Amino acid sequence: MKKGIGVSSGICIGKVLIKQDKFEIDKKNINNIDYEISRLDVAIQDTKKQIENLRKIAKEKIGEEESKIFEAHLLILEDPEIIKQTKERIKNKKKNAEWALTEITNNYVDMFKNIDNEYLKERSADLLDVSNRIIKNLMGITSFDFSSIKEPVILVSHDLTPSDTAQISKDKVLGFVTEIGGKTSHTAIMARSLEVPAIVGAENILSNVRNKDVLIIDGEKGQYIINPSDELIRQYKMKEEKYNQYRKELLSLIGEKSVSKDEIEVELTCNIGSPKDLDSVLKNDGEGIGLYRSEFIYIDRNSLPTEDEQFEAYKIVAKKMNGKPVIIRTLDIGGDKNLSYLEFPKEENPFLGYRAIRLCLDKKEIFKTQLRALLRASCFGNIKIMFPMISSIGELRLAKELLNDAKVELLNKKIPFDDKLEVGMMIEVPAAALISDLFAKEVDFFSIGTNDLIQYTTAVDRTNQNISKLYTPFHPALLRLIKTIIENGHKEGIRVGMCGEVASNQKLVPILLGMGLDEFSMSPISILPVRRIIRSISKKDMQYHIKKIINLSMAEEVEQYINQNLDY
Amino acid sequence: MRTKKVILMNESGLHARPASVFVNEANKFKSDISIIKEDKECNGKSIINLLSLGAAKGDCITIKTVGEDEEQALEGLVKLIENGFGE
């Protein structure tokens, strides 16, 4: 059994099909320059036909959005500078077209590599993709033809390019394994949206498999087995069956309520980073947005976003969610997340430093621009505003005051907004948790941010590998804090939600239900598994277990108790 | 030959999505089109060239058109920039 990084869950067993994309480019001297240039022209024409064809197929079989990548490729293919420079290189150096094109391409790729811009990185990948296609045509290598796949296969490759994944359809590919890539690589994202199991970072797999070898992949654990024994195949077939059964059960929960056996209904909402994530929210039946991270509007650019730009980004989400709640968190930047166009002081302890609401209350104009955009968007749906990193009542009051100022500015300009929009805060600092009884009198809702709450409560930097064992959601101190926050919120009649990893931790969901959590916000993919758990337990039973758990003294004991008594 | 200086007012300047919008517009004309920023000149019909120019918001660039439809080309491209690429 070998291991890579599992990036898309599921198990599949099938025959290997290798997509070989490595080829050697020779540097050759040539005599007939005109002939070499005409070879290049012919190859470009051939490539153009291929890409146009791919665009057509992608549009029909996969979707409009996926086909757009090929429009970008056509623009690059016909780039007059690339063509001109390649021809000059052929002429001046008297070298073959393959070599000349590679040189020119690499020049640009190297240049783009040094610029910190997501867009340029993507175009770099596109340029390489197009250039390789032309070179293959020059060398007479046929590009891998996805339409020739007859029976479903497991695709194994060094890497997959955007144009590869745009051609992959679910009925032909059972899963894929690549040698390079990470959790957020293009391949990983594509695999999850196709819902096929996938492993990336499977080092050297190409030297260990051949076409038609049998392969088992477990996309959850990131494990794969080449040519397994009959016994292993039997075992994994059972696992596959079980997993598919589980998936089926989950899918049957779409449209169902998130309600416990004793009729306690909770809200299962999603964490999103940009409007792009909405498809996944709707597909997984998210009941609202529990955390819309507004940072994405601010990053990957050279200047602050304008009020109008922000307004559009918030409006689109509010409209698409069609009346369901959309909680938008105001700018949470600083600490480890900086913006290239804003100056940040160098800090000894960035997580305890100038970040989130602290920065916003200092740079009031930036904050008010966002608040005005949020208010304006509130007419288009059920928007709620949430402030991050609040640690004192004074901060909350100042933030609310600035929100009021923004309202007055809009009123004076006769710009409409929803005056009743709810204002809440994240509870992620222990100080706020401990005086949550006081905070509850001044906001409409709480959302517990467990990632930071664990880090601050246990004094464990969650990015420090050396102490990663100390970072645990089962720490009794954390569970007691959560219980306190929920009770304090309920005493004042406000709703209490949670938007950290803990809200979708399958072992802790029952406990949270027992404590009375009203809203669980998580990544869209977790909605149905959590709904399944909620529907199979009763709050009353959980309250019984909480009485025992709350008196345990160690995280290990808590986890053990849950494993033994609360396995759903 | 015709030229005009313009200031990029759209948020992402000329080194992201707007670059392809610009090239698509430039391709509609027969004239040669170039963009000049400081001492660098690049081909306005080349997406890769344009991206490598690194023209950001607030930068002053010169558009130069040469050819039979140079007047219409200049007008069309200036309009595109002044409208902020519809961003």
What this model shows, in words?
The complex is a heterodimer of chains A (568) and B (87). Chain A has 568 residues and is α/β, with parallel strands linked by helices. Chain A is 47% helix and 14% strand. Chain A is built from 22 helices and 16 strands. In chain A, the strands form 2 sheets. In chain A, strands 1-8-7-3-4-5-6-2 form an 8-stranded mixed beta sheet. In chain A, strands 9-10-11-12-13-14-15-16 form an 8-stranded parallel beta barrel, surrounded by 5 helices. In chain A, α1 packs across α5 and α19 crosses α21. Chain A starts with a strand and ends with a helix. The mean pLDDT of chain A is 91. In chain B, a hairpin with a 2-residue loop joins β2 and β3. Chain B starts with a strand and ends in a 5-residue tail after the last helix. At the A-B interface, α2, α3, α4 and α5 of A face α1 and α2 of B.
Layout of helices and strands:
The complex is a heterodimer of chains A (568) and B (87).
Chain A: E1 2-3, E2 5-8, E3 11-19, H1 33-61, H2 64-77, H3 80-93, H4 97-113, H5 118-139, E4 153-157, H6 162-165, E5 173-178, H7 186-194, E6 198-200, H8 205-208, E7 214-218, E8 223-226, H9 230-251, E9 267-272, H10 278-283, E10 289-293, H11 307-320, E11 325-329, H12 356-362, H13 364-377, E12 382-387, H14 393-412, E13 423-427, H15 430-434, H16 436-439, E14 445-448, H17 450-458, H18 476-491, E15 495-498, H19 509-515, E16 519-522, H20 527-535, H21 539-549, H22 555-565
Chain B: E1 2-7, H1 17-26, E2 32-37, E3 40-43, H2 47-53, E4 60-66, H3 70-82
Antiparallel strand pairs in B: 1-4, 2-3, 2-4
